[in-house]
């Protein structure tokens, strides 16, 4: 079950064996994204699936506690985790998936009054924002390096699904609300990640600094 997987990851070995196995079996694409997209999914089940999805989507460097690999074994672990994330990346280019996340954000930020909000719901929103940040931080896939000039990259396909779902408008709304300032930096980082592949080297460097600051404070 999903709860068992979460427990499995919580008690993972130093070599991150549990995380590697989840990645090799592509649980993200084969199980978790379909669950998130399921019709009439109970809120509790959504939250559990979201927690596991965010956990498995976190950058390899975060899985390594923010420390650069120091020996051959650690580097092998790092590259295995990176490859697993790249393999799962294109599965996120799904309008319905982003639409489900959008609906959750709208219900909380647009439709629920401040005094009627619950802490557990806020935690779900935080996980959604973190997940979005992690999704757009996944490196280009192997296929990206082989595509023709007329083919869209995996990153462009992510952006297309993201924009088509309308979730970008919700994030912009949240960022415009002073009372939601706790979410502002993370939303800025999401958009920085989105445009990073399409800006000048100087702008990309600024984006990288913002990402480094945000990831460092999230570990």
From TrEMBL:
Coiled coil: none annotated. GO terms for molecular function: DNA binding. Residues 2-197 form the Timeless N-terminal domain. It is found in: Nucleus. It comes from the Eukaryota. Keywords: Cell cycle, Nucleus. Pfam families: TIMELESS. The keyword Lipoprotein does not apply. InterPro entries: Timeless, Timeless_N. One of its GO terms (cellular component) is replication fork protection complex. Its main location: nucleus. The keyword Cell division does not apply. One of its GO terms (biological process) is DNA repair. This is Timeless protein. It comes from Oesophagostomum dentatum. The lineage of its organism: Eukaryota, Metazoa, Ecdysozoa, Nematoda, Chromadorea.
């Amino acid at each position: 079950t999903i709860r068992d997987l979460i427990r499995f990851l919580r008690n993972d070995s130093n070599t991150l064996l549990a995380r590697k196995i989840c990645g090799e079996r592509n649980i993200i694409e084969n199980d978790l994204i379909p669950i998130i997209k399921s019709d009439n999914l109970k809120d509790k089940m959504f939250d559990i699936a979201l927690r596991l999805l965010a956990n498995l989507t976190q950058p390899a460097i975060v899985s390594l506690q923010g420390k650069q690999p120091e020996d051959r074994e650690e580097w092998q672990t790092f590259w295995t985790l990176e490859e697993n994330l790249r393999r799962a990346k294109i599965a996120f280019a799904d309008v319905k998936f982003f639409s489900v996340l959008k609906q959750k954000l709208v219900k909380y930020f647009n439709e629920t009054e401040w005094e009627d909000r619950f802490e557990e719901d806020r935690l779900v929103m935080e996980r959604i924002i973190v997940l979005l940040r992690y999704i757009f931080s996944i490196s280009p896939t192997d296929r990206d390096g082989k595509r023709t000039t007329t083919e869209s990259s995996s990153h462009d396909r992510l952006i297309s699904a993201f924009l088509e779902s309308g979730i970008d408008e919700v994030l912009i709304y949240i960022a415009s609300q002073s009372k939601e300032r706790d979410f502002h930096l993370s939303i800025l980082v999401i958009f920085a990640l989105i445009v990073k592949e399409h800006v000048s080297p100087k702008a990309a460097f600024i984006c990288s600094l913002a990402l480094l600051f945000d990831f460092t404070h999230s570990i």
